[in-house]
Amino acid sequence: MKPRIIEKEPIIIAGMDFYGDPFTAEGWSEGNEIGKLWSRFSAFMDANGDRVKNVVDPNVGFEAHYEPAEYGETKSFYVMVGLEVSAADGLPLELCVRVFPATTYAVFTFAGDDIKSNWPDKIFKEWMPDSGYEEAHKFLFEVYDGDRFKGMDKLSESELDVYVPIRQSQ
To answer: What are the backbone dihedrals phi and psi of residue 22, each rounded to the nearest 5 degrees, phi first?
Structure first.
């Protein structure tokens, strides 16, 4: 597994979020809290997409996972789904905005059944320890490009990119 290493300026995401453990009720499925969050965001965009200004690419969805300081104790974290925007002004009140810092990313591409695999272990336990890199920030993005990700029911035809913020190991 060899990621691409890229540099990115700050990324502004406008969307909706959830705090807690999204996998307690349904595990890895569209019925868990993340699936419900995507459904809520998609319904909002279907009804109000014309009100969301400054969208960089409406065909690319972001799912951000980020850990608060208490994650070690609570195992609760934030999940945000949304779209990248070039500016936060003029967005509907129903959307929240997060600005993720400029950083270096390791970008991993998963295809087919690997999308539902335990890719976090592949990244953090297999690749990272011998890579010369460490986590730069406690977040990551799953990037759903509509041209490459066809949906959970068409995984064999799909690809998913995972962006992990990194820095040289110290």
So the answer is: -70, -10
Amino acid at 114: D
According to DSSP, the β-strands at 103-111 and 77-85 are: unpaired
Asked if 37 contacts 16 with a C-beta cutoff of 8 angstroms, the reply is yes
Please name the residue ranges forming H helices in the chain: 33-48, 71-74, 119-121
Q: Hey, what domains does the chain have and what are their CATH numbers?
A: 4-168 (3.20.80.10)
- Summarize the confidence of residues 86-108 as an average pLDDT: 96
Instruction: Provide the whole-model pTM.
Output: 0.90
Q: What is the pLDDT of residue 103?
A: 97
Between CA 154 and CA 26 the distance in angstroms is 20
| pLDDT per position as a tens digit, 40-52 | 999 999 999 999 9
Distance CA 53, CA 165 (A): 27
Q: Identify the CA nearest to 88 among candidates 170, 169, 8, 15.
A: 15
